[in-house]
Design a protein that fits this description.
Layout: E1 2-3, H1 5-20, E2 25-26, H2 28-38, H3 43-48, H4 53-72, H5 77-88, E3 101-102, H6 104-119, E4 124-125, H7 127-136, H8 143-153, H9 156-159, H10 161-166, E5 168-169, H11 175-178, H12 180-193, E6 200-204, H13 208-224, E7 236-238, H14 254-269, E8 272-278, H15 283-295, E9 299-304, H16 306-311, H17 317-322, E10 323-326
Parallel strand pairs: 1-4, 2-3, 6-9, 6-10, 7-8, 8-9
Antiparallel strand pairs: 5-7
Helix pairs in contact: 1-2, 1-4, 2-5, 2-7, 6-7, 12-13
Length: 340
């Protein structure tokens, strides 16, 4: 099984990390350090680093996916990288110029990553597979490094109570995902969330029923499909009935604090949030969410009216930088029976 373009870049970074500190082999910690640096690379940076321009965009997309996976662990990447370098210290590599290969522990980690890739029915090992193997596998990482990662990975099942209290867990029944049109829109939303710096996917539509059908398709894909990418296995919570903050009241209301807690909880658990829609006259609600978007690492789905998006959201600096619009096909609404 071959490594993806992104993993080849991470491999090179890991080799540099090992070589410059005198290690004879590339240890799992070096690969983790490589992942933490790879996540910030875009296509131009990858091209400058020697990646074939024709494959740089593909590698940049992979960098965005592994970045999202690291964000979902709610760990400070910069601090973790410094911990790795301090903890590893200096190796005892001889002064010859022989190539640096993977250590037995790193090979074991790659074998676990290959198992994850096979489960997704692909022939390529990706950076996300290696990250998952480092976090969930049995790589002999020291507790100072592995502890925060594995604690974060184990957190979702324990800490989703707040989301369950204030929202509704969206479950797919298979029907929505089998509908080709709904599946196409759901995949487009998840692909948007896989882009670098994208925190919110906007479903540009006035159709509430369509939003519900697409949300069910998203839930199906999160549970069963490799198309979910780094969000695979995440839960989708509908917060559509939660009261909005009182924007006429001075200071933070209880609703303000509730939303802040829910955004923090979603970040910790790696959950996806379906937020109340933004209508043509909901400018203050959109402004509030836009300000929250800049300070939150959680990921959202929001239905927004075409009028609201076209008139002012598309030009807003928060939304244009951190959100991606998805417009359903023009004929999709007509496929839904009117009696529903």
């Amino acid at each position: 099984m071959s490594p993806s373009t992104g993993l080849q870049v991470v491999w090179q970074i890991a080799a540099l990390e090992a070589g410059k500190t005198g290690f004879a082999e590339i240890e799992p910690e070096h690969f983790l350090a490589g992942l933490l640096q790879f996540r910030d690379l875009d296509a131009p940076a990858l091209t400058r680093a020697g990646v074939d321009p024709a494959r740089a965009a593909e590698a940049a997309t992979e960098a965005a996916k592994v970045s999202a996976a690291i964000d979902a662990l709610a760990v400070n990447g910069g601090r973790l990288l410094r911990t790795i370098r301090r903890r590893m210290g200096q190796g005892v590599k001889p002064s010859d110029k022989s190539p640096i290969h993977r250590s037995p522990a790193s090979r074991q980690c790659f074998e676990k990553a290959a198992e994850f890739a096979q489960k997704n029915a692909v022939e390529t090992i990706t950076t996300v597979d290696v990250l998952k193997a480092l976090v969930e596998g049995e790589a002999p990482l020291p507790d100072e490094i592995a502890g925060p990662l594995r604690a974060a990975a184990a957190r979702p099942a324990e800490q989703s109570q707040l989301l369950q209290e204030h929202g509704r867990l969206v479950r797919g029944d298979g029907e929505a995902a089998r509908d080709k049109a709904h599946r196409i829109v759901a995949k487009a939303l998840l692909q948007a969330l896989g882009e670098k710096n994208c925190r919110c996917a906007l479903l540009v539509s006035d159709d509430d029923l369509l939003c519900k059908e697409v949300a069910a398709a998203v839930a199906d894909l999160l549970e069963k499909s490799p198309a979910a990418g780094t969000l695979s296995g995440s839960s989708l919570f509908d917060l559509g009935t939660l009261p909005r903050p009182d924007f006429d009241r001075a200071g933070k209301s209880g609703a303000h604090r509730a939303w802040e807690q829910l955004f923090a909880e979603a970040t910790r658990t790696g959950s996806l949030l379906l937020l109340p829609p933004i209508g043509e006259h909901d400018r203050r609600w959109a402004g509030y969410l836009g300000s929250c978007l800049t300070g939150s690492r959680s990921r959202w789905l929001v239905r927004v009216s075409p009028a609201a998006f076209d008139q002012w959201m598309a030009k807003d600096r928060h939304w244009s930088r951190l959100a991606r619009p998805v417009r359903p096909p023009d004929d999709l609404k007509s496929r839904i029976p009117s009696e529903l």
